[in-house]
Here is the input.
Amino acid sequence: MEVEEYLENKRMGYENLSDDERKAISNFALIWSLFEAQLLEESASARKILQRSQEWVAAPGFDAALIDGHLDCFKDRYVEGDGLNNRFDHLHLRPNDNEKLVRDVLLGNENALENKLACCLIIILRFRNNYFHGIKWAYQFREQQENFERSCCLLTWCLDQYAK
Here is the structure.
């Protein structure tokens, strides 16, 4: 039995996903794996992401407008008025995920380029953890396509710029 057929038969929400949603989920899993292997020494963490972000911002070819575009989408998703919304809580940031930095960047209180990049990548790290640890199944991957597509865009840019 094919994996997609199995998931459809389990009736856990996968059968309701469009082909584009399924593709975004699959693409994310593949690109994240390559990103983590090539750029994070096969061990992702917020600490390592912040370190890499500092290195990458200092390197030639850094595209601040690209990062701002991704950050704006995350702000649209997680900020309401002057604060963070309940979607932010669903990232399930852990103590070692540098939640203060993520909050400060999303709320516009921190604007250093390396911190903007780190914020975006830490959010993507949380997508990865929530996906691979099953949390996204709880709501059947609803409203996740853009998250996964946007994540793939930023991860592939990082790979193109910084992978050896």
Notes: The helical segments are 3-10, 19-39, 46-58, 64-78, 86-89, 99-106, 113-132, 145-162. DSSP finds eight helices and two strands in the chain. The radius of gyration is 16 Å.
